[in-house]
């Protein structure tokens, strides 16, 4: 299969430092999370203090992406146990508080031979709520179907079809247990 052509445009980047959080960085991380989830940013460090002192997050499971001193991305994992058929219990991670600053956009070039992610200044091909993306990602509903329902906006012709092919799979989710 011939290599796919790459864009000639390049974006100058500063290395992003991705690491676990130190307690003194909590106010900046809380501010980034709240802003990303469209909440008013805190005007003091009180919310970060409450988060650290009362909720006591495991900072070894709390990650942030720093562009210099600025927090431009966040991620937190939570430990869970997953009981699988046969009764075996396995450790599992839950993921929460995933954010990326709008100034730090990336493009995904994916195909059967792998994927490449790179910084971009290009506008998004699609706009959709996280719930629609999750549904397509998990295999429950195709993006094209979600677009027909008005949940996906296509901004570049062909963007929806490409993303739909990327996320489509042969197997649909199935849970044999009845609750």
In short:
Helix content is 25%, strand content 29%. The chain has 179 residues and is of the alpha+beta class.
Structural descriptors:
Nonspecific Lipid-transfer Protein, Chain A, 179 residues, alpha+beta, four-stranded antiparallel sheet, disordered N terminus, Aminopeptidase, 5 helices, two-stranded antiparallel ribbon
Description:
- Strand 3 (70-83) and strand 4 (89-100) form a beta hairpin.
- It is globular, with a radius of gyration of 19 Å.
- The chain has 2 domains: 15-104, Aminopeptidase; 105-169, Nonspecific Lipid-transfer Protein, Chain A (2-Layer Sandwich).
- The chain has helices at residues 26-36, 46-55, 130-138, 143-148, 159-167, and strands at residues 17-20, 62-67, 70-83, 89-100, 106-111, 114-119, 126-127, 153-154.
- With 179 residues, the chain is α+β, with helices and mostly antiparallel strands.
- 25% of the residues lie in helices and 29% in strands.
- Helix 1 crosses helix 2 (46-55).
- The protein has a 4-stranded antiparallel sheet.
Number of strands: 8
Output the CATH topology of the largest domain. Answer: Aminopeptidase
- Largest β-sheet summary: 4 strands, antiparallel
- What series of H and E elements makes up the topology? EHHEEEEEEHHEH
Mean pLDDT: 83
DSSP strand content: 25-35%
Secondary structure class reads alpha+beta
CATH class identity of the largest domain: Alpha Beta
The CATH homologous superfamily of the largest domain = Gcn5-related N-acetyltransferase (GNAT)
What's the number of domains?
2
Which second-level CATH architecture of the largest domain applies? Answer: 3-Layer(aba) Sandwich
Termini Cα gap: 46 Å
Mass-distribution shape: globular
Approximate helicity band: 25-40%
